[in-house]
Each structure stands twice: as C-alpha cells, then as structure tokens.
Amino acid sequence: MINRRSFIIGIKSTKLNDLEIKFLTKYKPWGIILFSRNLKSINQIKKLTNHIKKIFKDKYYPILVFVYNRPNLLSNLLRHNDVTSVVWEVGANIGTHAMAFSKVAKQVVCWEANPQHFAILKMNTKGKLAPNVHCINKAIGAPDVETITVEQFDDTVPGNYGAARVGSKTGTVVECRTLDSYLMELSPPSLVKIDVEGHEVDVLKGAIALMLITKPVIYMEAGEQTDTSEHYNMLDKHGYKMWWFGCPNYNPENFKNNTENTWGDTHIFSILAVHESVAGLENIDLPPVEGPDDSWTRFCRTISPLGAEDFADR
Predict the structure, then answer these.
(1) Secondary structure class of 3 (helix, strand, coil)
(2) Do residues 88 and 192 lie in contact, with contact meaning Cβ atoms separated by under 8 Å?
(3) Which of 10, 17, 29, 176 is the most buried (most CB within 10 A)?
C-alpha cells in the first residue's frame, strides 16, 4: 500500500528547490498541483514532472495541472489594451465568449455560419444585453471561396454540445468571405478568436493582410487535429510567436455553481499567437509552441502520466 498523506500542495517555481524536495520526501503528499507559474516550456515541464516522479519512485504519481478558464485569459488580454479594443470572433456559436468580450471591449464582431447557432447568438446579444456586439451570419475562409456548406447541429448525438463543421457534404450553403475583405468595412481588431472545428488554416489564409498590417493577438482552438504544422508555419512566417493554452471543460466556478462534473478531465487546447513586435513577450507565462512538429498531444504527454487521451476534448 502506498504510504501518502491526504493533501495536495503546489510549488513555487519552474523547478523544485531544496526545501521543497525535503518537504516532499518527509511528508509525502498525495499529489502536486502545477499552476501557470510552474509551466515554462515542454522540456522544462518534462524535467520537473520526471523529478517529482523520481522522488516518489512512482511514474504514475498524481500531478495535476490548473489553468484559468478561457474567457478570463482572453479578457485579461484585452485589459492590457485601452477602451478602444475591438474583438473579431470567428465561430461565435451562441455567444458565450462574445458576451464576456462585450464587457471589456469597445466593439465585438461575431461571425457564425450555422443558422441554428446564429439565431441563438442574435437572441443572446440583442438590445441592451450587448449593444456593442455586431453579428454576421456568414462563413469565414480562404480567398476565392464564395460559398461553403455548413452542417446542421444534431442535438440527438450524445456529447455534442453545439459543434457544427463547415465544408461538410450536406447542410446549409452560406456565403463565405475572408477576414481581409472586412478590413475596409470594420474597425481593425486588437484580438481575433478563431474556433471553427478544424477550419482554422483556411481562416488564416484569408487573413494575410490582417496579420501583416494590423497584427492582432490571435487565439485559436487547435484540438481538432494533431497536426498543426500549417497553423505554425503560417503564423511564424508572418512574425508571430505561439504558446499552448489548455482550458478544462469543467469550471468549478461556473455561473450556476453546478458541482456535477460531467466532463471529467477533458480539456480544450488552443494556440495563443502574439506578433513579435509586441513588447513584453517574455512575460507570457505559458508553454511555448516549439515548432511545426509540436502538437497538443505531445504537450499533454509532458504534463500528465495518463496520456493525451484522458485530456482530449472528444
């Protein structure tokens, strides 16, 4: 039987100090929780977790990772700007993030291609609820694509909480434009959020001028595929530095204080991209994307003995 005490502790920095090593050896806590201050790079995280496992002589020793929920991260990014901040959100779904953005940004522009989601998005943001949110029922994609088919949301599929892909064989045909085509019509964004179920590269292909001229912060979901080399190469080519961000699907501080966690340990994995010309990049306390061959599955394996399968949003 494993002789451990029933408490979990955190550590101060990106590696164990002498006092922490002595404490762990003597008091043998049940597990260790890592925060953003403890995560610097994939190699550093691997060394840290291996050191912890070595102390307890247990390759499955419980190491938990806590990251802030996604709306808070994005809202904090906006708070570093002034009150003129503008957010462009591609794939707004029913407006969960749009409503959060509306509290800290001057204007929020949302694109949602799926008609079912768009109807709810409009209802959630209408009138005094979010007067600074502008909703557009169009798809965003690559140049020379005029229309695209969007699948209908099937609420009979277990575990489907609103995902609807673009580019499907059946569904609703909607108009498709590039983000660049809106530069002359809308205020330029400080932040662009992209969540389009694997369609992210096509969105970036239509945002070349945006990346070259406006250079907004880009935050995009990257958990739909394990190969994100195209994402990396396109952003890197246009001067962007990238970091991983993992958001747990269950937030204990949810709006309704619901204590039932139906999500388990599943996470949504995203890439935060900031242009190299922005000051203070060295202060971003997140694990960096280390190259075109890096992926969220490898990031998971470095921080969890359970493996990527236990963290994937599937």
Answers:
(1) coil
(2) yes
(3) 176
Radius of gyration of the chain (CA): 21
- Range from 55-64, 143-152, 230-239, 296-305 carrying the lowest mean pLDDT: 296-305
Residues paired with 211 in a beta bridge: none
| Longest pairwise C-alpha distance within the chain | 67
Q: How far apart are CA 50 and CA 59, in angstroms?
A: 8
- Give yes or no for a contact between 133 and 95, defined as CB atoms under 8 angstroms apart: yes
Name the amino acid, one letter, at 65.
V
Residue 119 and residue 94 in contact, taking contact as beta carbons nearer than 8 Å: no
Cα separation, 111 vs 40, whole angstroms: 34
CA angle 210, 133, 150 (to 5 degrees): 70
307 φ, ψ (degrees, to nearest 5):
95, 165
Helix (H, G, I), strand (E, B) or coil at 9: strand
**Closest C-alpha to 31, from 308, 309, 305:** 305
Q: Work out the average pLDDT over 217-236.
A: 88
d(C-alpha 314, C-alpha 310), whole Å: 9
> Crossing angle for the helix pair 296-303 and 42-56, nearest 10 degrees?
30
Residue the block writes with tokens 């970091």 = 243
**What is the DSSP track for 95-127?**
SHHHHHHHTT-SEEEEE---HHHHHHHHHHHTG
| Residue given tokens 């920095």 in the structure block | 13
Strands, DSSP E only, in 209-259?
Answer: 217-221, 240-248
Least confident among 60-69, 188-197, 216-225 = 60-69
Distance CA 10, CA 215 (A): 37
Residue 128 CA, chain-centre distance (Å), reads 28
- Of 266, 159, 162, 161, nearest to 223 (Cα)? 266
Over range 148-155, report the average pLDDT. 78
